[in-house]
Amino acid sequence: ATMPPLLSAIANAGRHGVLVKSAVVMERLGRVDAAALDKTGTLTEGTPRVTDVRPLPGSGLDGSGLDEDGLDEDGLLALAAAAEHPSEHPLARAVLTAARARGLTPAPATDFTSTPGVGVRATVDGHVVAVTAPSELPLAATELNGTDRAAAAGPERAGRSAVAEPEQAERAERASRAAAVVAELEEAGRTAVLVFWDGVPVGVLGVADRLRPDAGATVAALEALTGVPPLLLTGDNPRAARQLAAEAGITEVRAGLLPQDKVAAVREWEAAGRRVLVVGDGVNDAPALAAAHVGVAMGRAGSDLALETADAVVVRDELATVPAVVALSRRARSLVV
Ligand code: ADP
Ligand code: MG
């Protein structure tokens, strides 16, 4: 007997290196009429490299354990690597690779937590080390300052704010120095990552990633298939995102998004009558993959959560196979009727 068209399309997609999880998904792929792509690990190769290691100079804070000159480059990288160790984020792997390349051994970390689209936090040598997006910087300069902490401790402790004032000035000074480094790196198209030590910014890392070789062709093919320009959805900063998007031929960019913002963008489009194809790789993409008409995960470096949530998985790590399976589905559907 000949195989039903949708089943042979699934087999065919498999030969292209795409695992389509069901006949229903194979059928839906042909109906998508809009596409949204994640940046890091999806439009890019997902193997970002640390290009800049910038400790913030300045005297140590009271009880911070930092010496007069703060951290040196290796110290900063080792600290970041210690906190990033358990993370499966591409940025975490970049930090660990850079630390290893310098022969550094990260200290053991406990109490690891990660916030998708924001960063990680862990306890290292009894201190809280956080490695995050620059969006956390204003918080460090304000919420964590000495006065607020004293106020939070209750009125009987309010007198402490006088003692804490120099510390607060130091924090604000460090935050503004960090912001300047962040702006400089982002201007150069890098992703800036901040390192905090007990809430104090102690350094900035610059990270750069390459566009996939088939990114431009994929964007063009998706636009031809759907009739609308594909949208880039990213948690990264607008400057780095726009530069990369332009290289891939993407004009529609939404940056600085948290996982729920990616979902909102998909829902907005679907409310306007579009059936949205979402392609992503990260834990931060999982909710959007679930909300999409069809969610496709990049398999090689994709997080387990993305692979489980997605309706289809790109196993062979070629982005251009995504529009190829959309076309496959359309051909199969024309045979089904
Ligand atoms: P994208 O949407 O482009 O895949 P993410 O949402 O995964 O990016 O991450 C958005 C931003 O959050 C990153 O650019 C980075 O600043 C920060 N971030 C997320 N995870 C980490 C991590 N493990 N270490 C450092 N920064 C992180
Ligand atoms: Mg990603």
Written description of the protein model:
The protein has 337 residues and is of the alpha/beta class. The protein folds into two domains: 5-46 and 211-336, Rossmann fold, CATH 3.40.50; 49-208, Calcium-transporting ATPase, cytoplasmic domain N. Helices cover 45% and strands 20% of the residues. It is built from 14 helices and 13 strands. The chain has helices at 5-16, 23-29, 39-43, 73-84, 90-101, 137-141, 146-152, 160-187, 215-226, 238-248, 259-271, 286-291, 304-309, 321-336; strands spanning 18-20, 34-38, 49-55, 109-115, 119-124, 127-132, 191-197, 200-208, 231-233, 252-254, 276-280, 294-298, 312-314. The strands form two sheets. A seven-stranded mixed sheet has the order 1-13-12-11-2-9-10, sandwiched between helices. A hairpin with a 2-residue loop joins strand 5 and strand 6 (127-132). Helix 1 (5-16) packs antiparallel against helix 14. The site of magnesium ion (MG) has 8 residues, from helix 3. The site of magnesium ion has 8 residues, from helix 3. It comes from Kitasatospora phosalacinea. Residues 150-171 are annotated as: Disordered. Belongs to the cation transport ATPase (P-type) (TC 3.A.3) family. Type IB subfamily. Keywords: ATP-binding, Cell membrane, Magnesium, Membrane, Metal-binding, Nucleotide-binding, Translocase, Transmembrane, Transmembrane helix.
Listed once per kind, the bound small molecules are:
adenosine-5'-diphosphate, magnesium ion
Largest sheet: 7 strands, mixed
Radius of gyration: 23 Å
Number of domains: 2
**Helix/strand order:** HEHEHEHHEEEHHHEEHEHEHEHEHEH
Structural class: alpha/beta
